[in-house]
What does this fold into?
Amino acid sequence: MKKSKKLLLDKIIKNIPFFACLSGEQIEELRHVLIEKHFPRNKIIFVEEDTQNYMYVVLSGKVKVVHAGADGKEHILAVHKAGDFFGEMALLDGKTAPATVTAMDDTDILIMSKRDFDEYLLKDNKALMEIISVLCTRLREAWMVNKVLSLPTAKERVREVLKLMAMHSGVKDNRGTVITLRLTHQDIADYSSLSRETVTRLMNKFVKDGKIEILDDKNILLKHSFQ
Amino acid sequence: MKKSKKLLLDKIIKNIPFFACLSGEQIEELRHVLIEKHFPRNKIIFVEEDTQNYMYVVLSGKVKVVHAGADGKEHILAVHKAGDFFGEMALLDGKTAPATVTAMDDTDILIMSKRDFDEYLLKDNKALMEIISVLCTRLREAWMVNKVLSLPTAKERVREVLKLMAMHSGVKDNRGTVITLRLTHQDIADYSSLSRETVTRLMNKFVKDGKIEILDDKNILLKHSFQ
DNA sequence: ACGTTTTTGTGATTTTCATCACATAAGTTT
DNA sequence: AAACTTATGTGATGAAAATCACAAAAACGT
It folds into this structure.
């Protein structure tokens, strides 16, 4: 393993709240049991209702957490980027995965087995408190999505979805907040439960009104005037 | 306290997953620190964004967990009946309450202070595991609501909301499942983010199609053919 | 650089609900 | 029981967004 990669891995691991309580030694140990795996774009990582035996950490790329509707449409519940983790729920309560996770780009992912998860995390009181705090965050996020979906107009829905993503994956700069997920209109539509065409029209309107700007790399800048 | 009431209290306490791991003595102890309080219909128990210092258990009646929209409309996230508990999140991560809770009927509620909560629950590893499992359940429920709200037609939304309530508050009998919450059409509308009129029309259609039946006490019977 | 696939842009049409406007019914209060 | 209040039933109308149907542009693969 390259030195720089090793350092990156260390940095990412240390930023996972679950692992915040582990000692340097423990992290070193941990790194040896973690498996790195590559998922090409559009590859499914796991399917809703699957029995799940791993927790995942995104190293690079991004993944979407989705519910698939009967009609083939999918609803995005969350998008995770480098440094985010997912799949912990099935490990915690032993039930099946509540949603499907798919790679949105070519994505490198770190995998931790249930055995190691139990070994390193479920024995330590402090780690359990961390897990609880993470679940609370997830719950608050789920309720926020909920709120967004019950907004009456398409415009509000798109606006709030953008704000939600800015909160989770936003980088502030002097002009506003940049959503670094490089989302397509279809992605935003799947997030806000609207049609792609409606999202296209609204995004253009936001641009025309000077509320947002699409940067060269397709990232979305929410200007200060946004909202 | 009347004997019968004491027994009821005991039974309810023992059915709360948080307390499942406590010994008989501990429960006895616990009962002395719990305060019982009455909330009349429509009384707000706590407000979104409030700093919250208690956990609550419903003894009788029912409460709704809601997000209030800017336009005065409210969106129901969950309904809790006797034996259910709520308000635990703010105690767990110290952040403000993520939603408002209101009594839907005259409701008796048991209150546990943060101090007792910490004292009895946050020290025990087994209790922490219980809390984690409860949070996972909440998260799965929140995602189900999410799924319902992203369904494209009003009919599906109402159908799935009814199924959700049946799952949480349903009593099976030989004809199907009875939702024992005595909900108004407005409640269902607030749950599914539809207008009251649309819900009325759809409920009548379900009745006419023989899928559901409104019992004398206003409870809703989902017949076996429902779905 | 060329063809292919994916994404975006935009008008025309249709559908579905929300809204409005009452009527009726059922429950509550006094 | 009369007077209110709350809940339900139902038609008519309108608005918002889905759908349909392409065109154009960008991104990607080889």
